Amino acid sequence: MTAPAIPAFPDDAFGRVLCVVAHPDDVEYGTSSAVAAWTARGIEVDYLLLTRGEAGMDARAPEQTAPLREREQVAGSNAVGVEWVEFLGYPDGVLEYSLNMRRDIAREIRRRRPEAIVVGSWDVEFVAGLNQADHRVAGLAAMDALRDAGNRWVFPELVEEGLEPWSTRWLLVGGDPRPTHGVDVTGEPLQRGIASLEAHAEYLAGIPGHPPARMMITGITALQGVAMGVAHAVLFRAWDFHAPPAIAAEIMRLAGHQGPG
């Protein structure tokens, strides 16, 4: 029996998205094609980067690399319709999970008030192999900060800053091997996603053997498109924080079948 295709998100699922990642270029490895599809529909998307990517180029000193990678990230973001890009300035390559990091992400969640947050996988092993340390820290801290942002008694100093709690509904995890939803990026969104990675030209030129951006993004989205039943797609594992936990729904289902006890 053929497995059912992974569904798209409902058209009205969210109107504002915040992508939280560790480095310049992290969004561009496929996810930015989904961003292009969203912005084309009028969904507002913002980017929050924990580092400036200063440790990413062996041939350049960090003080030279950081501004270069910031410029390339802004250009790549603009290619898919993203105008707001913020860099928190945590040290690249040695991110450590901390309360300060959770607070800083929660602060931006309350400021931007997204209905969905996009992060990368925090698992040690993900769809591309073994996950990088900064990626794991960024994904886990952002997931925790999503809850922090909705609780006025966690980081109460944010309320003192005038930032009232904000409860984000969706957490979308890219790179998870158990996707639940997808975004069809066939056509123009794919082309804009390719352009967003191509904007990181100097960074990519310093990676020996890196495939051309067009080949890489076309291949990634084609593989993911198979699961969705379209030519090209970007897949996510989606968590709905406004829905009852899955275990609660299952308990209620079983109780309904068994009748009053």
Explain how this protein is built.
There is one protein chain. It is globular and about 65 Å long. It is α/β, with parallel strands linked by helices. It has 9 helices and 9 strands. Helix 1 links the parallel strand 1 and strand 2. It has a single domain, classed as LmbE-like (Rossmann fold), CATH 3.40.50.10320. Helix 2 packs antiparallel against helix 6, helix 3 crosses helix 4 and helix 6 runs antiparallel to helix 8. Helix content is 41%, strand content 18%.
Summary of the model, kept short:
The chain has helices at residues 31-40, 62-79, 99-112, 133-149, 157-160, 188-198, 201-205, 213-228, 246-258; strands at 16-21, 44-51, 85-90, 116-120, 125-126, 129-130, 170-174, 181-184, 233-240.
Supply the CATH architecture: 3-Layer(aba) Sandwich
Write down the Rg.
19 Å
- Identify the CATH class: Alpha Beta
Q: Strand order within the widest sheet? A: 3-2-1-4-7-9-8
Q: Proportion of β residues?
A: 15-25%
What is the CA–CA distance across the termini?
A: 38 Å
At the fold tier of CATH, the topology name is: Rossmann fold
Average pLDDT confidence is 95
Strand tally: 9
Molecular shape: globular
Estimate the helix proportion, in percent: 40-55%
**CATH homologous group name:** LmbE-like
Low-confidence stretches: none
Number of domains: 1
Largest sheet report: 7 strands, mixed
**Structural class by SSE content:** alpha/beta
Give the helices and strands as they follow along the chain: EHEHEHEEEHHEEHHHEH
